C-alpha cells in the first residue's frame, strides 16, 4: 500500500479535492490517500511549507507527498519531484521547497517535463502529478519524465533579517487557536542571543521581554511569547485569541532586540 | 474494494458525518470512503450538483456516490438510485439530479421503497442509503428495494433565462477563493452570442465587456469574467476577493447583453 | 483491518492532524483512520463528548476511538484507556468521559503510565496514544502500560440544575446549521415535566412554550424548540440562523419552567 499525502490550499468547498482523489484512485492501485490539510491560506507558501515540514517525517519512509499551494497559472511554472530522507515530494518550484528545509539541499531534484495539455491545465495536481505518480509507481525510470537539476528555487520570504543585536521577522500564519506563528526559529534566536536579555516588539504598543514554556505560565488573558514544539516563535494569549485581541495580521513585523 | 464518495451539506462540526461513516463501515465490508465535500452550502443543491458534476467522472467506474444535500425532512421526500456512465448515485429527488446533468437523462432511475422507521429518520444517509448499499453490494436485485421510474425531478433553478439578445443567470455559490460561480455555461453563451460583442452586468455599477483566459490577464485588484475549467462563468478579482470587494451574494442576478 | 477514529479540537489548518496520522501509519499496520471531527470548538469537552457519544456506537465493535479535546498542558494531566460496549477509547481524564455517558460507568478504566518524554510532549496523541495503540494492537497486556482504576473524572459542567418545577441548562455548542444545542435531554425533561405545561426561557425576551417535531412545524424565520434525534434540546429558526438572529452564545443559560 503506497501512502500519498495531500497538502493544498484548495479548500473543501469545491470540486478540486474530489477531482484529485478521483483521478488518483482511478489511475493508481493499492494507494491510501491521506489529507494533511486543504486549508492552507490561499497562495501562502510559508504556511504550506510550515505544515508539511512539521508533519511529513512522521509518515513511513516511501511516502509520496503531493503539494498544491499557490498553483496559480503562470507562463513558465515548473514542477519538481524532490527526494529527501526517503520521502518523495511533488510540488511547484515556487519557493516552497526552499522554505521546507530552511534552504538545505535535498537528496535529489528533478524538473518534470510538461506536455502541452498539462501546460494549459488549471489543476496540475490532476494531470501532471498523477501521470508522474503513475510512472513512478509502475517502476518507470524517473529520468524519462523529468530532468535532473541541481536545486529548487529558494525563497527569501521565509527568513528573518538578522544583525548582531536585532532580528526582524514576520507573522507567517495563524494556527487553529489563532496564535500567531512567526518565522523566527529557536536555534537562530539562541545563537544570536548569546545569553543576553531580549525584547519582542510587535504592533506599536505591544512588547514581551520573556519567553514562556507553556501558555499557562502567564495569567489568563495575558499575552506571551514561546517557542513551540516545532521550534518557531508563537505570540499567544493564555486561553485567548491573539489574532483578534492583539489585532495581528499575516505579514506583520515582529522585531527582537538583544541588549 | 468498493469506493463510496460522500457529498453533503452536513459540515464537519457535528456527529452526522461520523454516524454515516461508522454505519457504512459496520455494515459493509471492503469499502473505501472518500469525502468529496461536507462543506456544501446548507440546502444549496446548485452548489452540491456543481461540485459533484465536476468531480464524479474522475473516479473509477463502479464508484458509488452518496449525496446528502438539502435533506430537510418533508412529508413525501423521495430518494433515488441513479445509474449513469457506470457510476451509481444515491440521493434525494429534490432537483439535484436534474442539475447534475443539465437536464439530460440518466441510464436508469429507481425510486427507493422507504420503510416506516426510515420515513421518520432525520438522517436518511444512515438508514435508507446504507440499507440500499448493503443490498446492492451483496448482489441483491435492485428492483427488490426500489421501483424503476422514467426520470428524476428537474429544477428550473439552475438554468438561466434566455432570449435572443440576453441571458439572465445568477450566482450559484462562491468557491474557496471567493470567486463567484454563475449558472451561465460557455456552450450556451457561445451558441447565443454568435460572435457578437457582449456585456456582463452584475450589481448596479459593475460591468465587464470582455472574457479573460486567466486571472492574471488583468492588473492586480481588477475585476474580470472568465469561463472556468468546468465551463461555468466566474466573476473574480485578480489576487483579490470578489465576494467581499464587489459585495456579491448567492442568488445575485448576472445579466448578459449581446449587441 | 483495525479502525481508528479521531475526534479532536486540533483543526485542519495546522500540522497536528498530519503528525498524528503519519505517526499512526508509520507505527501500526493494517489500520484505517477515520476522521469523526477535527472541528470541535477548542477546549470544549461538552461539544467533543456530544459528537463522539452520538457517533461512536455506529462503528463496528473493536473500533478504537482517539480523543484529543482540551489537551492543554497541565502538570498532572492523566490519560485513560476506557473500554465500553466493545469499543476502546483513549483520551484525557479531563471530564470528557463523564460527559460521554452521562455519568454512567464504563466496563473497564485504565490510567496510562506516562514516561518522561511523553510528560513533556505538547501532543500526547502522537506519543503516548500511539505507543499505547501499538502495545494493544500487538497483543500486549494492557496492565503493562497502565493501571486499572475504578472510574474516570466526572464533570458537573454537562448537567443541568434541576428542581421540581425548573431546569436550568446551558448552550453546549452550535451545530453546522447554527442551531443551539442545549444540555437538556428529553428523558430527564419528560420525567420532570409529568405532563405539565412548560416554557423555555433564553435571552431576555425570547421564550417558547411548545415543542416542535420538525423545523418546518413553524413558519419560516420563526424560532422553535425541539428535541433532536440525539435526544438533546435544540433552539432553532426554521430555515434561519438561530445563533445570529437570536444573538446566542455558548454558555448562555436556558431555563425551563413547568407549570
Question: Main interface pair?
Answer: A-C, 38 and 26 residues
Fourth CATH level, the homologous superfamily of the largest domain in chain A: S-adenosyl-l-methionine hydroxide adenosyltransferase, N-terminal
Largest sheet of chain A: 8 strands, antiparallel
Report the portion of residues of chain A in β strands.
25-35%
Query: Could you name the ranges of chain A where pLDDT drops below 50 across 5 or more consecutive residues?
Result: none
Structure report:
Three copies of one chain form a homotrimer. Chain A is of the alpha+beta class and 259 residues long. Chain A folds into two domains: 2-155, 3-Layer(aba) Sandwich (Rossmann fold), CATH 3.40.50; 160-258, Elongation Factor Tu (Ef-tu), domain 3. Helix content of chain A is 22%, strand content 32%. The first copy, chain A, has seven helices and 15 strands. Chain A has helices at 16-27, 45-53, 96-100, 116-120, 125-137, 186-193, 242-245, and strands spanning 2-8, 31-37, 64-68, 79-84, 87-92, 108-112, 146-149, 161-163, 166-174, 180-185, 198-202, 206-208, 223-227, 232-237, 253-258. In chain A, the strands form two sheets. In chain A, strands 8, 9, 10, 11, 12, 13, 14 and 15 form an eight-stranded antiparallel sheet that branches. In chain A, a hairpin with a 3-residue loop joins strand 11 (198-202) and strand 12 (206-208). In chain A, helix 1 packs parallel to helix 5. The longest helix of chain A has 13 residues, at 125-137. The mean pLDDT of chain A is 93. Chains in contact: A-B, A-C, B-C. The A-C interface holds A 3, 5, 7, 12, 32, 34-41, 47, 50-60, 63, 173-177, 214-216, 228-230, 239 and C 9-19, 21-23, 25-26, 33, 42-43, 72-74, 121-123, 126.
Amino acid at each position: 500500500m503506497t501512502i500519498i499525502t495531500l497538502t493544498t490550499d484548495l479548500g473543501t468547498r469545491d470540486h478540486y479535492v474530489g477531482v484529485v482523489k478521483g483521478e488518483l484512485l482511478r489511475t493508481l492501485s493499492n494507494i491510501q490517500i491521506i489529507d494533511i490539510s486543504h486549508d492552507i491560506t490561499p497562495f501562502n507558501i510559508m504556511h504550506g511549507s510550515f505544515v508539511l515540514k512539521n508533519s511529513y517525517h512522521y509518515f513511513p519512509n516511501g511516502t509520496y507527498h503531493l503539494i498544491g499551494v499557490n498553483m496559480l497559472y503562470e507562463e513558465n511554472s515548473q514542477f519538481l519531484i524532490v527526494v529527501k530522507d526517503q520521502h518523495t515530494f511533488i510540488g511547484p518550484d515556487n519557493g516552497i521547497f526552499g522554505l521546507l528545509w530552511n534552504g538545505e539541499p535535498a537528496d535529489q531534484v528533478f524538473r518534470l517535463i510538461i506536455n502541452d495539455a498539462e501546460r494549459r491545465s488549471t489543476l496540475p495536481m490532476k494531470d501532471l502529478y498523477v501521470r508522474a505518480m503513475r510512472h513512478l509507481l509502475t517502476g518507470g525510470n524517473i529520468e524519462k519524465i523529468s530532468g535532473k537539476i541541481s536545486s529548487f528555487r529558494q525563497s527569501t520570504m521565509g527568513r528573518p533579517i538578522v544583525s548582531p543585536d536585532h532580528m526582524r521577522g514576520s507573522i507567517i500564519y495563524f494556527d487553529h487557536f489563532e496564535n500567531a506563528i512567526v518565522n523566527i526559529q529557536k536555534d537562530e534566536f539562541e545563537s544570536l542571543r548569546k545569553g543576553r536579555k531580549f525584547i519582542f516588539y510587535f504592533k506599536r504598543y505591544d512588547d514581551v521581554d520573556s519567553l514562556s514554556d507553556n501558555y499557562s505560565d502567564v495569567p489568563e488573558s495575558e499575552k506571551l511569547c514561546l517557542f513551540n514544539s516545532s521550534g518557531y516563535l508563537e505570540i499567544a494569549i493564555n486561553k485567548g485569541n491573539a489574532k483578534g485581541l492583539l489585532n495581528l495580521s499575516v505579514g506583520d513585523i515582529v522585531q527582537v532586540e538583544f541588549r
